[in-house]
Amino acid sequence: MRSTSSTIRTHRTAGTTRIIRTAKAARVVAAVAAGALAFSLTACGGGRNSGGQDGGDTRTTTTVTLPRLDGTTLEVAAVWTGSEQTNFKKVLAEFERRTGARVTFVPAQDPIVNFLGSKIAGGRPPDVALLPQPGAIRQAVERKWAKPLGPEVREQLAKNYSQRWQDIGTVDGTPYGVYYKAANKSLIWYNARVFENAGASEPRTWKDLLTTARLIYDSGVTPFSVGGADGWTLTDWFENVYLSQAGPEKYDRLAQRRIKWTDPSVRDALTTLAQIWSRKEYLAGGPDGALQTEFPASVTQTFTGGDQPKAGMVYGGDFAQVNIAETGAEAGTDAKVFPFPAVGDTAPVVSGGDAAVILKDSRAAQALVTFLASPDAATIQAGLGGYLSPNRNVPDSAYPNEVQRRIARALIDAGDDFRFDMSDQAPQAFGGTPGKGEWKALQDFLKNPGDVAGTQARLERDAAAAHGDGS
């Protein structure tokens, strides 16, 4: 999953690694669906919160002791761009203020594992990298790039993260990653004026969503904007449908390669997706236009053009609010959001995140990741908007609006009862590489949604190759 709005372009976002929560989490999400997510998310902006985007004071209460590192330099690599990168640099600036170190942000290309490989081959790895997939962490460990987390980092992990979050960053019993960022990726944003003109209401089920789409189309507006140029958006569509329709047990079996992509449950999910993707008139620009639209543009074109935008609604995570803000749309009036509708008995919840991993072991690198594992760092970025933390000790008051506070609380209240996104559990060649694997297969399916069997065969072939199981 990934994550990056202008910001989230990989995975997984989101800015976006992603998480799928069920069972207890489903109950938490039901409460969110009935409350917080029924409201519009307030877009982030300066002057409304501590450390807002007006560049104000981003310092926060000190909960962790850091060493003085005067004269030390560090490099931190991530795929983040736009506001997400800008806000993270404010977090790094606070680390500099406390320690005297100088930190440089290194923009990474996607997939970041390939980017890091070239840096390491050239003898210039960054000190720390933010990795968007558990599979990428394991790759970094297997290639002997990643360094174990020191005792100060582990102390912060134990204080601030549930055991499951700690386990996700652990490889063969050794902790390597600190999940600094998370995202809720089971949301659909909509243009409120378009819905009002069409007489449409927020759908709760997939059947309701199809009815809503028809009402919007009949009103003269294309129903959906799809950022198909970024393949992760399509895997998110699939995962939301599959989890809700097939259920968590089946989901786990597919993620763990205990069933194949040729399983009937995959056929059913693709067939369900085709109910929307096969309606060319329902997609802004048709399939070809969708495949040329990156995620940020898929959001902005939904909220520009008054009551005649290019589309009435768009799939996206909580991080989409950054792109919405760029359009000048007024949250609460123009931009609203509803949970991804239930296809089966329970509405799905997909989330995501990025983990800080040390590539050059040093006192300074350990100190930086200790800071990122503390509530101090996350509290700064929470106040800047477009961000959620899995750190359970970040105060609710850190978030800039009530809806985002409730979304963050739902994430924390899920405790250990969650599952990671399927594509992020897979080898990156299958689940996280542009032009390959699942991303490419679903892009091809968006263009030709009648080819369900062929898509399943390609998914299974590519998954087998990436896993090296020869099946």
Automatic annotation (TrEMBL):
Residues 1-45 form the signal peptide. Keywords: Signal, Transport. The keyword Transport applies. InterPro entries: Bact_solute-bd_prot1, SBP. The keyword Signal applies. Belongs to the bacterial solute-binding protein 1 family. This is ABC transporter substrate-binding protein. It comes from Streptomyces thermogriseus. The lineage of its organism: Bacteria, Bacillati, Actinomycetota, Actinomycetes, Kitasatosporales.
